[in-house]
């Protein structure tokens, strides 16, 4: 008997769920320890996002297993004048947790991590960082196909940021643009092409303001990322040729491996829409070479590979290898 897609889906890393379940505050209140070195925590938080942008999730999980407890310890033990920075680091770190979990399809746990990121940013009294946590929450909602909720969170957060963006704050403009790109994807997945293209146009203008060299709040927002979302929107709307045309126009070399790998997944989706199995497989193999862990973990890839398997009676050997790697099986 052939396994179903749900049965074939590999389990998420249990260490991440344990990381979110541990009673850090209780432990630190009952058994207080010495405050960790803040400079080291700052470096580790930066490393966490380097690994997330690189799609190196196994090493990221190992680092988070050390960093999250240390940050909670610092939140209780650090001098008062350092608390705000500690909570900012905790917010950034929980955002990395959420991103890692969302990629693996661990939506419930990703939601918890995004919520904790928002709470930590609130403790730091940093509203823009709170908005960055809301951006992560939008991504989680989209992964669970809660499109109405994703749109409400994205719209309200973008509206709250708009005065800052209009004042010339480029970091706020990046966040506003990143949220607007997600609104474009949400509209496309609802089948509303007009709204999707309107959001893309608005984000494109913001991207021109921000320019190509920033990575505010780890969104990688800028002109190239706008085109990456144009590819995704076209694929979501079922327009393979438009997606491939947009993909051919983008120079993604300055973007992270995670973003470049995701672009190639969307290129593969576009070829799949046209039943171009060999081209779709080639794009997935290229994506796998850039970010193997991302490709192997993504439910979207698993579904795409299963669809490609169904298009031919005799599937190419490389497609069968991919199916084994990602846990996809024909019905």
- Please state the CA-atom Rg, rounded to the nearest Å: 20 Å
Shape: globular
The stretches of 5 or more residues where confidence is low (pLDDT under 50) are: 1-11
Helicity, in percent? Answer: over 70%
The helix/strand order is: HHHHHHHHHHHHHHHHHH
Q: What descriptors fit this protein?
A:
18 helices, disordered N terminus, mainly alpha, 331 residues, 3 domains, 76% helix
Characterize the structure shown:
This protein is mainly α and 331 residues long. It has 3 domains: 9-141, no CATH class; 145-253, no CATH class; 256-331, no CATH class. Helices cover 76% and strands 0% of the residues. The chain has helices spanning 5-8, 14-21, 24-30, 38-54, 57-77, 83-103, 107-123, 127-143, 147-166, 170-189, 193-210, 223-236, 240-248, 257-273, 277-290, 292-297, 299-310, 317-326. Helix 9 (147-166) runs antiparallel to helix 10. The longest helix is centred in the first third of the chain and has 21 residues, at 57-77. The model is unreliable at 1-11 (pLDDT under 50).
List the helices and strands and how they pair.
Layout: H1 5-8, H2 14-21, H3 24-30, H4 38-54, H5 57-77, H6 83-103, H7 107-123, H8 127-143, H9 147-166, H10 170-189, H11 193-210, H12 223-236, H13 240-248, H14 257-273, H15 277-290, H16 292-297, H17 299-310, H18 317-326
